[in-house]
Amino acid sequence: MKNKRVYIAFESRSIGDTIVWIPYVSEFKTYFECEEVIVSTFHNWFFESEYKDLVFVEPGAIIKDIYAEYKIGCFDENRNLNKVDWRTRPLQQVVADILGIPFKEIKTRIKNFSSERQINKKYICMSEHSTAGCKY
């Protein structure tokens, strides 16, 4: 895909899926030396300022003159899209497998939502809820 235009569409509306998958789109562009990678997520505004190497479009956009198109998601019982059951893999490995790039943990860059830090110490935010029941 060297010097080609590629379109990658996130099929999941889940914020968590989108956050862990987006750095792999940038990694894909570098790995395959693509000329341009166009990506659609349901949360583009989280990432547009952090991933300047990608072109963000809204889901459902018609993209012409592309070499390849990838759909990213957790697809039940579809071994063409998920070669291995996605429930048995880290979420980042799901996207690495679909895009055909090596799996390694990648920290996501995300828009800074506040100019002023509310808590001065390091902290983690967690939720007891999930989009998919298997994550419980």
Structure described in brief:
The protein is an alpha/beta fold and 136 residues long.
Provide a descriptive summary of the structure in words.
- By secondary structure, the chain is of the alpha/beta class.
- The chain has a four-stranded parallel beta sheet, with helices on one face.
- The chain has helices at 15-32, 91-99, and strands at residues 5-10, 36-40, 55-57, 68-72.
- The protein is 20% helix and 14% strand.
- The chain has one domain (5-135).
- α1 (15-32) packs parallel to α2 (91-99).
Topology:
Elements: E1 5-10, H1 15-32, E2 36-40, E3 55-57, E4 68-72, H2 91-99
Parallel strand pairs: 1-2, 1-4, 2-3
Q: How many runs of DSSP E, i.e. beta strands? A: 4
Task: Write out the strand line-up for the largest beta sheet, numbering strands in chain order.
Answer: 3-2-1-4
Helix percent reads 10-25%
Helix/strand-derived class? alpha/beta
Work out the helix count. 2
Comma- or semicolon-separated keywords:
14% strand, 136 residues, four-stranded parallel beta sheet, alpha/beta, 2 helices, single chain
